[in-house]
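Our preliminary data section would be incomplete without showing what the modeling component actually yields. Below, a chain of 381 amino acids is followed by its predicted structure, encoded as tokens that our downstream tools consume directly.
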Amino acid sequence: MTSKENIPLALYIHLPWCVRKCPYCDFNSHELKQDLPENPYVEALLQDLSQDLPHVQGRGLSSIFIGGGTPSLFSPAVIERLLNGVERLIPWVPGIEITMEANPGAVEQGRFVGFRQAGVNRLSIGVQTFNDGHLKRLGRIHDSATAERAIHSARASGFDNFNIDLMFGLPEQTHEEALSDIARAIQHQPKHLSWYQLTIEPNTVFHHRPPLLPVDEEIWTMQESGQAFLAENGYMQYEISAYSEPDFQCRHNRNYWEFGDYLGIGAGAHAKITDFKTRDVTRLWKTRHPKAYLDSSVDFIQGKQVLNKNDLIVEFMLNALRLYESIELKLMSERTGISMGEIDHLLVKAQEKGLLKVADNKIETTSLGKQHLNELLLIFG
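Predicted structure:
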């Protein structure tokens, strides 16, 4: 039964500016070429959220994620004003998780204290690699020493719960260098690690001028060795690129993967909302360019789509099958309103190919399915 009691609600806030656009980045981020419009943008964000209130239907927020761009370019006072404004508009579930992305090269050491005092209780630090040569190739504005200082500063400022972002399969990276990055990250005892393969996305500098990447066999060896190393050090893999100590999985991202609901405010932000009267699931997205967004005083919504049954099946599986643990079959019925009987033939097909295991009213991606996730997802698409 689809109800607001069993579908959590999260909020994503997009702050789109950064110091420099990285050559691999395909996010909606824009180089800051003038003064940061902090206060006008926060006013627009809160107005955007006010217009979204009819979608909330009396629900409370279980998590907030402030992403970018580089959110840590914003001052702690403005982040505090933003969070206070959000709380006035929508109630918060007790123990709410509030994450903010921070890039080491765009953080003054004293700012972490201010972000913690503003209400942020979890940081995601975009290190990417501790190798200075690879950082230069990736177009990052920080070096490894700056990354180390940022991590130390975060912990000293009261952030016991933080994530370190790392990538592997970098241009000219060796197997030993990939494992060295993990080892250096673990020395800082983060509660969470995001460790994911660099992919070349359309509309990026790397797409137009492709770098020399390790061959697939080398990347697969990096991945297997890295996963084993993380497990040996107490980091449980619970999603394709997410590892955590017990009880420190990212609640906000987990909500995406379990097909929960979320609002999205800010330039280009996306939302997914369930209407509990009609049982419709709607995706909507906001005006993409920051300047146009700041001028969108009447309506921030650029487009919307009500998902049909096929969309719901594909999107649920696209997210849920990223998880490394079994998923209760009833979760799909709760989150989409679609009975499991309607996809039995697809589950059988996935099992016959050895890509999916179905037992005890649960589904789980097999080892083969994890290696060939795209093939598995095509069965449901």
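DSSP finds 15 helices and 17 strands in the chain. The longest helix spans residues 216-232. Preliminary results of this kind motivate Aim 1 of the renewal.
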